[in-house]
Amino acid sequence: MRFSAAVGVLLIVISSARAQSWVPFKINTSGNDLNTVYFLDSKRGWVGGDGGFLSYTEDSGQSWRPQNVPTKSAINDIYFRDSEAGFLLAGNSIFVTRDGTNWSQNRIFLPEEFEGADVELYSVRFSSKKKGWVVGSISKRERVVDSILVYTEDGGDSWRRQRAPSRLELIHIDFVSDKRGWIVGDGGTILFTRDGGASWTKQNVAVTGTLYHVDFRNDKDGWVVGERGTILRTTDGGETWTTIPTNLNVTLLSIRFASDDEGWAIGRTGTILKSTDEGKTWVREESTTRQNLYSLYFNKKIGWAVGGGGVVLRYERQ
Fold first, then answer.
1. How many Å separate Cα 239 from the centre of its chain?
2. Model pLDDT, residue 20
3. Is residue 4 part of a domain?
4. Where are the alpha helices (DSSP H) in the chain?
5. Residues 85-120 pLDDT 10s
6. In a domain, 221, yes or no
7. Cα–Cα distance, 65 to 61 (Å, whole number)
């Protein structure tokens, strides 16, 4: 792992901290890993995972009930454009709901469209009511041969492919407005748009490992996590990225800021990190699991993390 030589690199603080813990919730996934979590508000939320597993709560996780999605592929992401219209990615397919309950296949990307290669979709975000984006990878015999970037301008009724300035695997996308968005992926890839996705350019970073998640609070302040404890921070919209040494060798898979000051990062072997100073320093929190944690979500004061073996953790901010 290479670190930035920029002046003012901020060191991370790694220690065990006694704080309000992440409380495990019981949910029957029949052993399936959970890959994604999304909450519309403090009560209504979804978790999705391997084997097409999808479950819904409307009482802040006190109880969960399954929802049917016509797929056996792993559900990789869930995102709601508004209180009713939701999108879900599973394998090579996009699914949609208009009522939060019933899911139908919206678009499937077949191998014959890609010279026999397989498509895997990882992340979906909308920058406005009509315009949305999906990223992923294209593989032959389990080897990534290209990226995939598709978009809709009609609320998801149709999807068109756009060539990205990278053929490496694209894993996560985030928008802070209808104009400005970021994509991260393999090989230290960070792509940026300032024109609503009409064009994408690469941003320079001093890492080459896989980047798994990007989170921006506004058009200036953003964070990225990835392999071998990588945390990157920008305060100028990605014009420059500071690599924060973590002294961790564990892969970090998701990062979220619950407020301008308070941020969380999670990863393999149950790793949980917390920052209270805009991501300048991080403290390792005690974890209630050793399972890999794949996805993190905050809705105001309530935080959720999900991962291997169906683990679900809940955190309530003071």
1. 22
2. 62
3. no
4. none
5. 999 999 999 999 999 999 999 999 999 999 999 999
6. yes
7. 10
Q: Number of folded domains in the chain?
A: 1
Q: Which residue has the tokens 């995102």?
A: 79
Compute the 3-state secondary structure of the chain and give helix, strand, coil in percent, each to the nearest 5. Answer: 5, 45, 50
pLDDT, tens digit, for every residue of 258-299?
999 999 999 999 999 999 999 999 999 989 999 999 999 998
Identify whether the C-beta of residue 292 lies closer than 8 Å to the C-beta of residue 267: yes
203, two tokens: 């941003």
Structure token pair of residue 42: 């403090």
Q: Is the dihedral of CA 269, 69, 45, 119 positive or negative?
A: positive
Asked if the structure places residue 5 within a domain, the reply is: no
In the prediction, which pLDDT does 301 show? 86
Q: Which residues contact 153 (CB under 8 A, 6 or more apart)?
A: 130, 131
CATH assignment at residue 44: 2.130.10.10
| pTM of the model as a whole | 0.92
Domain around 106? 16-316
